[in-house]
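Morning. Coffee machine broken again, so started the prediction first thing and wrote up yesterday's gels while waiting. Chain of 494 residues, entered below exactly as on the submission form.
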Amino acid sequence: MYFSLGSSALLLLTLTLESWALSFPRGSDELVDCLKSSLSPSGSVQTPGDPLFVNDTTRVSSYDAPSFKVVSQVTNEDDVRASIKCATSANIPFLFTGPKHGFYTGFEKLQNGLEIYTAALDQITVDADANTITVAGAGRFQDVVNSLYAVGKNIRAGIGRLQGLYGLLIDSILSLYIMLPNTTVVEVTKDKNPDLFWGIRGAGFNFGYVLNATYRVYDEVPNGQNLNADFEYPYTAANEFYQALKDEAPKMPAPLCIATSLQWSPTYNKIDGVMPQTTLFVNAVYAGPESEGREAVKFLEGISPVLRKNYTEVPWNQLTQNAFFLKGDEAILNCAATYGERSVFGAVINQVDVDASVQMTEQFNYLVTKYPQMRGSDNSMYFCAKQAVEAVPEDSAAYAWRGALGHQTWGYLFEGNSSTSDALIEYLPEKIRSTIADTAGTDGLEVYIGFSNGDEPIESVFGKEKLPRLAALKKKYDPDGLFNAYHPLPTSYP
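Came back before lunch.
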């Protein structure tokens, strides 16, 4: 099960993600020579055939992936600077990556480039007395969670389970150090380089590589325990579930978050002559006393039939592993997952349209029933309370979807069939997304960037109201488009 809520690298939304420069390669020999003479003793250079090359270039998804001729393993700021300068000098396109990296269809444009591999930049420093944590650019979310849990603290996710109490991760950023495209390093806070402070919190991957960031952290809930409630229903219960979700989502208590996952089941309803069907998993987490949590999720008990259910008290740092009947994907948390050919789609939801949600469920069931190679796919919703999210002014950061009621994401896994195309599966991924986006109460398709595909209009990712200011920042800090791999901003808008 792919469970992505708060489980990706910590800086996914707000900071670097993956950053590139696109140019036209003359050859890798000059680049390799430059790197070998410029990197620190702890840095290294890998080329095809070297023992670490395959490991360092293997991605969480091979779908529309970039390709590399050289890997620069960096261990400090000077290595990062040298890698950028060597690539620029050799006219080789480059891409910053961390463990297992991310997904975006636009990455396929970078071929035979330099991978600047930052896995060694994973340092974490917690100051419990000051309620802060400083995380280097390749810090992994699970390591952050464990470091904080050990001292009775917690942190928000990009969007996540605690957002009703504490807001978004970007709202917790106090300061950061970013290497700009010209390789200078600047400190960014609300008072120092405030324009970048605004832009980085929603589009930071357009402006450079974040070396580290300092976040405000919060006291753990009493006893450090959260109520974890799991339910499984047949997909035919979709109408009743989505009606209940429509009624309950706008009034969720601040400590509550609900996630769903619709998946193919190889066993449910399997009888002679009848094909198995998908089932709907629902995970509800309440960051507070069990008695309050059970009351908050009581509406889920009224949906029938319930194929199975489970209530547990779970430490905050183990929530994802325990979600969905212990099927949360710990490999994602540890940046160790490899899914083969997988694509991602998403949509912001401002209102739950019951009929459209049921139609989407039926479309997904049709997809995984008719096309066996798609049966590793999943279809997920995230509805977390948003009181603290909406308490922050809309214009405080570049992030555009602060008012979202929830988010829908689809992960399509093309199992064992590299020739499968959208045409061969009736363009169902796009059709399913449209079913939700057209009825979501939004101004056309809107998408949280962590759930984006790469085929969306730029307004769908950043919001047309934010784009003029973002374009001005792009022109100021990266006029040559060196960091244009991931949802590149224009230098003027409209």
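The first strand starts at residue 20 and ends at 21. Going to sketch it on the whiteboard this afternoon.
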